[in-house]
Write a structure and sequence with these properties.
alpha+beta; 5 helices; about 190 residues; 2 domains; disordered C terminus
């Protein structure tokens, strides 16, 4: 059996409305937002940060390096799989990827923002973390491993299928988790 790889460093492309629609309302006027800038194209403007975040440069996965530019790239010309799960799953299947650890793109810039209240309004930095370590039996190798459960994460999606929401498993039609995820040493 050929095993598919898991991407350990994948990124989303935050859509233009991402922060504006979901930020704490008292920060809405300062929310990170897309702005079209001459000779740069679409870029996220993050209040309090020195430079705009040019989407043509930071959302360039899958492009030939010779084609990567900040000159005039519009958000609608970026890969749709950066923010649309339907396209993301199709790209995973095309690339032979089993699953991904997905990170923000603009959010990683916001992590360095000097204003904690502003950063916290963009995402709740205090609640994202991990639980204490615990031991599990790692199958199929049968080895003991230490793991830590994520906290402060509202949803977990594997290959386009929602498996956890707000800390609880999302069961499929048969009352089981989709796929064969491992939970405390036993296949779910």
């Amino acid at each position: 059996m050929i095993k598919k790889p898991i991407s350990a460093d994948s990124h989303i492309t935050e859509p233009p409305h991402c922060y504006v629609d979901y930020i704490d309302p008292k920060f809405r006027g300062r929310a990170p937002r897309i702005q079209r800038i001459d000779k740069i194209g679409d870029a996220f403007i993050v209040d309090g940060m020195g430079s705009p975040v040019p989407m043509g440069l930071v959302a360039a996965a899958g492009k030939d390096p010779a084609e990567i530019t900040t000159a005039g790239v519009a958000f609608e010309d970026l890969w749709k799989s950066g923010w649309d799960a339907k396209f993301r799953v199709a790209d995973q299947e095309k690339d032979g990827i089993a699953a991904e650890f997905i990170y923000p793109t603009v959010g990683m810039v916001i992590c360095n923002h000097p204003d904690f209240d502003y950063k916290n309004a963009c995402f709740d930095a205090e609640t994202v973390g991990a639980s204490p370590l615990r031991g599990v039996c790692y199958l199929p190798a049968g080895e003991d491993r230490l793991i830590s459960d994520a906290s402060g994460i509202s949803a977990v999606v594997v290959n386009g299928t929602l498996i956890r929401r707000n800390g609880a498993d999302v069961l499929g039609a048969e009352g089981r988790l989709p796929g064969r995820l491992l939970r405390q040493g036993a296949a779910a």
